[in-house]
Amino acid sequence: MAVSSMNENGIKNRNYYAAGVPGSFYGRLFPEASLRFVHCSYAIQWLSEAPKELMNKSSPAWNKSRIHYANSGDEVVRAYKAQYHKDIEQFLHARAQEIVCGGLMVLIFPGVPNGTHHSQSLPSMSLELLGSCLMDMARKGIVSEEKVDTLNIPIYGMSPQELKEAVEGNGSFSIEIMEELPPTIPDHAVSGGQSKIDTQAFVCHMRAGLEGLFKNHFGERILDVLFESYKSKIEENSSIFMSGKAVNSFVLLKRKLSTSKLA
Ligand SMILES: C[S@@+](CC[C@H](N)C(=O)[O-])C[C@H]1O[C@@H](n2cnc3c(N)ncnc32)[C@H](O)[C@@H]1O
């Protein structure tokens, strides 16, 4: 659909206005019943925060020496899942108030196929490997081990089934379409049937998304060393890495005409 044309000065005439709205999508961003269409792409894998119990030394979910959950105990995985459930319910609740009845919402998100054990989750395996690079750096005295202990990446690799259950539990939307998307380039580089990983493409993809978080936590000076060692580690572990499971999902939701759950 064409939504813009050029005027005589070569400036685009748009039949819409662009606006930036500050705030987190885990809370309300827009007025009630003001949106007809919402598109949220590659973002709801980010949790609102890492589960707090992962940083509590006396909790069974204390995630020592790790930054994610692929090789962690069940308590850690349970804490991530609980955070995801809380967040996704808040996301759906907020959007249900903002979207008009009959309005649509597209969600595109990376995650894992239904029934995947956390140890086989490619999103988590890739973060786990990055965590092991940080632990190597801690052993060499480049970063402090305590800094690694206190970093837990607030990302959860949900399955399509988990999203479906969240939508049904929320009750405000019907699922019109739910399907798997073709792999993106970085996914393809890992699990698209190639015999070799495009490590550089994968590391660039990860660095683009995570650099800010690592910079805030450890400082800028470690970034080049960290991602160089990550590249080597992926190359050394390529066969394990290629066994990881990942899926990109496309979901089209429709705001129901009425719901008993909206407070
Ligand atoms: C991987 S980028 C995706 C960017 C773009 N939507 C796309 O598909 O290319 C993830 C985006 O989600 C945003 N994000 C993560 N958590 C968020 C939150 N709680 N509220 C609003 N935006 C959030 C990040 O700031 C980032 O811009």
Automatic annotation (TrEMBL):
Name assigned to this protein: S-adenosylmethionine-dependent methyltransferase
Coiled coil region boundaries: none
Organism classification: Eukaryota, Viridiplantae, Streptophyta, Embryophyta, Tracheophyta
GO molecular function, one term: methyltransferase activity
Xref: Gene3D superfamilies: Vaccinia Virus protein VP39
